[in-house]
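Sequence in, structure out.
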Amino acid sequence: MRAVFLDTQSLDDLDLSPVSDCVEELVCYPTTAPEQVAERIAGFDLVIINKVVLDASTIQAAESLKLICVVATGVNNVDLNAASARGIPVCNSQGYGVNAVAQHVLGLMLALHTRLLDYDRAVKNGDWNRSSQFCLLDFPILELNGRTLGIIGYGALGQEVARLASCFGMKVLVAARPGSDQIPAGRVSLEELLETADVISLHCPLTEQTKDLIDATALAKMKPGSFVINAARGGVVNEAALKDALCSGHLGGAASDVLTEEPPRKGNLLLDATIPNLIITPHSAWGSIQARTTIIEQTRDNIRGYQNGQPVRQVNT
């Protein structure tokens, strides 16, 4: 097979030989602009992508195309119907970032509760040098032990965050699926979770039911001084409402690894440095060396599965 990888940038510091060893030829591009896609995939049997869009017209015109591998879980950048119409399997990567994202969430949670960034800035500004005593206690420090964590989205990621949080002595509540009329055993309603939790951690996909799930109304129901952590998708939390809740002092802090537009080339409300106790990370929670290595290994397995007539992690029919 001849293979082309259209956007290697998030993996190009790693060894791609597990993939290249599966094919006769592997051509790699760090990035590919939309107008370059059709030309670059022409004549290739296998197209590997991360965020590059493969729309219906592109798939239909790629006469040699036999397999599409996505080095991510989300496949909304591929027209699955067009691929299925031509009998082209689309295989993705799954479960690779559970440990990485979960530890990132706990890191954010700890940083918010200990005011880690505030103390780091204070020390670098010379506040400790000028202190009248041996320590600085300018920012309130909270313990995780005994606090209640509310989780929205209880797949593999949510479950691992719950496990880690319980190791710190946190009580864990899990919300019923957003949009569902039923509350299964072991779950609570979203309203109860909002009113009860000291920390809310989001791990649900962005859908019609979850867009702006955490809006001004939801934030107002949360306990004063509580925290919001979003490692899901930017649109799940209304950014303007979150900024207002932080600036008013209603929330004690928040952290987000995602924004509504990524990268935020036009800026973003949450990038305002004056917002108190807010941490923004650049969609990096998933990106541990181990997680990204797993993506490469899964892509190798996806290719081998296709070659053996048994595609794995195929997301279309």
